[in-house]
Design a protein that fits this description.
heterotrimer, A mainly alpha, B alpha/beta, C mainly alpha, A: mainly alpha, disordered C terminus, B: alpha/beta, 6-stranded mixed sheet, 4-stranded antiparallel sheet, 10 helices, about 25% strand, globular
Chain lengths: ~290, ~260, ~290
């Protein structure tokens, strides 16, 4: 039973990470190969705040989010003005830099030996509620002006700007929000695992988060959720297949992109509106698939 | 009353002058046209006015504001709206959501409101939905509201761009080759639409266009460009009689 | 730092910089033609590093033969990746995003495949030469480092000649400004993109072999590509010459920093340097500012 609870906790945490990347990559078309750095920053901020400075859990969580957002601002401000490749490449480097920083500050952070003895404070209820809130946040954002603006920027930045969208400001908002979710999730991860180390999240983990979104479909939060839950719970349940699952995931992605670019779930969303349409068949005809 | 003042603007690309020393003045309820052979710098002029690109030299004034160095979203907020020569719609958004985009800054609710989906957001969303649907109905696109732009015909997509440009109730509308790719019947329809918009919404329009019938029929003032420079300006009657224009431009068109 | 150690580090750094330059050009040439950041390049580098190891341990102990064979295989893998992964996306006219996602997927599959197969093993290349170093007035010059530098220089020179003087090369350069509109000197788009990936693959083959020789071969060797990417950014994305200069510069600065302040701070300093560079000169040392078309 404990085992399954653990699987659920890990899966939910990773699903939160998938959602943070969904906003950034799925909706806005910005790719961060260093997104794991924000998870690491969140985890270490929370871990250090409690073990080294004796701060209470709730304050450590807030601190983790703040530090993560500051990191996002440092990376985002110079790069989000430039063409997207710069953002991608610089975030990739950022991930490596955070790792180097942790190794360098070994006296404080424990370096390669990792940081142990973090209080076990994030149990299933806290993680479940947090994930649920994040799901609702992201779903709400997608429905309204914020999400529409993201998609407009993704599809045609120049036209979006000419239609009155402050593209740079919006990208910063998206990135900071995404960094905040990632570092909050990272802090929960630290409080859940009690031990963290600099290699917690390398570029590959960040890449997986992106890839999962493309399997689910960039226009579907539901797709990102289901694919994320499926992928991470599968990996936890069948540990022996841990490495091979990535090879399978990779091949699956390429097949999806070549044959069904809109992703497995297209733009389908599991929502009250969809449920209603199940009961009244009539309007479903007019809906665009 | 003068709405837009373009004062000897220039723009170079890699040493080639795309626009050189171009000036024009546009009245508040005027329909004018910029014409000229391909590569004369018409679209670049639009890009400079709408802030998609910034001028190397010269200045731009819209109403009371100096817009020379403003980014395009700020210029749009002041009341300049445009369409694109090569249609640039947001393919990931539905038809109605495409129209909503250009009204976003006016909505005035915060990210926090949106995260929590507060009643304010829901009220504003209903409002914008109504406005966007009105706009679509105005241009006969209402039945396509839920579709994706890619599934529309070429002519309908051009009209959708027009709807999107009209949504924020601009004071100046820039139409970049609105008739390109349309058939004769569609062009006639477009002409009456532009005149209708102009009367109904009382706004100022500049078109860049190759289609002479449209230009001669709806515009009161024509600016002719060649090699980035303005070679003539006048009423349609004056332009058809202008020697320079006949040589540089109309003669050119005769060969096509 | 004494002057002899300084020169010692400088020579080593420049040699390694030569490899970064080759990597930057391999990454940059695909970026130029198809306009996306091709992370699969790291995957091809990793495959080549393993292939080079296998060949030099089991087939031939001749350095030149092993290098040539690895390079060829790298080119073939590059073409294979283009055919299987990128061509279908290009044919369907899908957005650049999908090229990119496919490219990180390839890098991921390669790394995880090697992890699954030989994750726990570290492979070291054999010593190809009896005499491993020269002594020149107090300096020790490693033979492999010298070879790396010379070979990198020759390869980049040959590539430049190819791009400037041959019909196919000129077609690739024409494709860099716009692959979809010009007739590309009568060469069809499939051939141009295929060839671009073959060239990138050949360069990845050389890179993989050199990196394998310099370090040990692990599943993570593809991540070394970060150095090539950094060089490409510093050089100005889209400028191959800038990438070469920046690659050598990066190698030298890195080696000197490691000697001066240690290997743990070096990546942090280099990274911060890049952020500052992007703030003051986003187009890099040789690139043109990026303009948009409306």
């Amino acid at each position: 039973m404990v085992f399954y609870a653990k699987v659920l906790e890990t899966t939910l945490l990773f699903t939160m990470f998938v959602l943070s990347v969904y906003m950034l990559s799925g909706l806005t078309g910005l790719f961060s190969l260093g997104h794991g750095a924000f998870i690491t920053i969140g985890a270490y901020t929370a871990g250090l705040a409690t073990t080294r400075f004796g701060l209470p859990i709730w304050l450590s969580l807030i601190l983790a989010v703040v530090v993560g957002m500051i990191g996002g601002l440092i990376i985002g401000a110079p790069t989000l003005k430039l063409r997207r490749d710069y953002f991608l490449l610089v975030t990739f480097g950022f991930g490596e830099m955070v790792r180097a920083l942790l190794l360098w500050t070994a006296q404080l952070t424990g370096g390669a030996m990792g940081l142990a003895g973090i209080p076990y404070a994030a149990e299933l209820p806290l993680i479940a509620v947090s994930t649920l809130v994040v799901v609702l946040f992201v779903a709400n954002l997608k429905k309204t002006a914020f999400g529409r603006t993201c998609i407009a920027i993704r599809d045609d930045e120049l036209a979006a700007q000419a239609m009155g969208v402050n593209v740079y400001a919006h990208k910063i908002k998206v990135f900071l929000l995404s960094a905040a979710i990632a570092s909050y999730g990272g802090a929960l991860l630290a409080f859940n695992m009690s031990f963290i180390e600099p290699n917690l999240f390398n570029w590959l983990e960040s890449a997986k988060l992106i890839v999962i979104i493309f399997v689910g479909g960039i226009n579907s939060v539901t797709g990102a959720l289901i694919t994320g839950i499926f992928y991470y719970s599968f990996g936890e349940l069948f540990r022996f297949a841990h490495v091979w699952r990535d090879v399978i995931l990779g091949l699956l992605v390429i097949l999806v992109i070549v044959f069904r670019a809109q992703g497995v779930f297209g733009s389908w969303e599991f929502s009250p509106a969809w449920i209603r349409s199940r009961f009244h068949r009539r309007p479903a005809r007019n809906q665009e698939a | 009353m003068e709405l837009l003042r373009v004062d000897s603007i220039s723009k170079n690309f890699g040493g080639v002058a795309a626009v050189a020393d171009f000036s024009m003045s546009q009245g508040a309820a005027e329909i004018s046209a910029i014409i000229g052979p391909n590569g004369a710098g018409k679209t670049t002029t639009f890009n400079l006015i709408s802030g998609v690109q910034t001028v190397d030299k010269g200045s731009l004034r819209f109403g009371q504001s100096d817009i020379t160095r403003l980014p395009s979203h700020r210029i749009q907020a002041l009341g300049v709206s445009r369409t694109f020569q090569n249609i640039r719609l947001f393919d990931g958004l539905s038809v109605v959501d495409n129209v909503k985009i250009s009204y976003t800054p006016q909505l005035g609710y915060s990210v926090l409101d949106e995260l929590l989906s507060t009643p304010r957001v829901r009220r504003k969303e209903r409002l914008i939905e109504e406005r966007a649907m009105e706009q679509l109905a105005f241009l006969g696109l209402a039945e396509h509201a839920k579709k994706k732009p890619k599934s529309l015909s070429y002519g309908l997509r051009r009209r959708l761009e027009l709807a999107r440009a009209l949504m924020p109730e601009p004071r100046l509308l820039l139409l970049d080759e609105p008739a390109a790719g349309l058939n004769a019947a569609e062009i006639r329809e477009l002409m009456s639409t532009i005149e209708h918009i102009h009367r109904e919404k009382n706004l100022s329009v500049i078109v860049v266009e190759h289609h002479m019938e449209l230009v001669m029929n709806i515009c009161t003032r024509i600016h002719v460009m060649d090699f980035g420079r303005k070679i003539a300006e006048g009423t349609p009657q004056e332009i058809t009689r202008n020697e320079k224009v006949l040589q540089a431009y109309l003669g050119d068109m005769g060969d096509v | 730092m004494g002057s002899s150690i300084f020169f010692q580090q400088l020579i080593n750094g420049v040699s390694l910089g030569g490899v970064y330059a080759v990597m930057a050009v391999g990454f940059g040439i695909v970026f130029n033609v198809l306009k996306f950041s091709n992370f699969s390049h790291g995957g091809v580098v990793a495959i080549s590093a393993y292939v080079g190891y296998y060949l030099s341990r089991n087939v031939t102990d001749n350095f030149w033969l092993a290098l040539a064979a690895t390079t060829m295989i790298g080119g073939a893998v590059g073409l294979l990746v283009e055919r299987l992964v990128f061509r279908p996306v290009r044919r369907a006219g899908k957005p650049l995003t999908y090229f990119f996602v496919n490219s990180i997927t390839v890098a991921m599959v390669v790394q995880q495949f090697f992890s699954a197969m030989w994750g726990a093993h570290y492979f070291a290349y054999p010593d190809f030469f009896e005499r491993t170093a020269f002594h020149v007035s107090g300096l020790v010059i490693s033979r492999t480092y010298l070879l790396m530098l010379v070979i990198s220089a020759v390869v980049l020179l040959a590539l430049t000649l190819f791009l400037r003087a041959t019909k196919l090369g000129i077609a690739i350069r024409a494709a860099s400004s716009d692959i979809y509109t010009p007739p590309l000197m009568g060469v069809n788009t499939d051939v141009v993109t295929g060839l671009t990936f073959v060239i990138a693959g050949l360069l990845a083959g050389i890179t993989g072999f050199f990196l394998g020789m310099t370090y040990t071969v692990t599943p993570f060797i593809g991540s070394m590509m970060l150095r090539g990417i950094i060089a490409a950014i510093i050089g100005g994305m889209g400028s191959l010459a800038g990438g070469v200069i920046a690659g050598i510069l990066l190698g030298a600065v890195e080696a000197l920093l490691i000697a001066e302040v240690g290997s743990s701070v070096t990546p942090i300093i280099i990274y911060l340097g890049i952020v500052v560079l992007l703030l003051v000169r986003p187009q890099g040392i040789a690139g043109k500012p990026y303009t948009v078309k409306a």
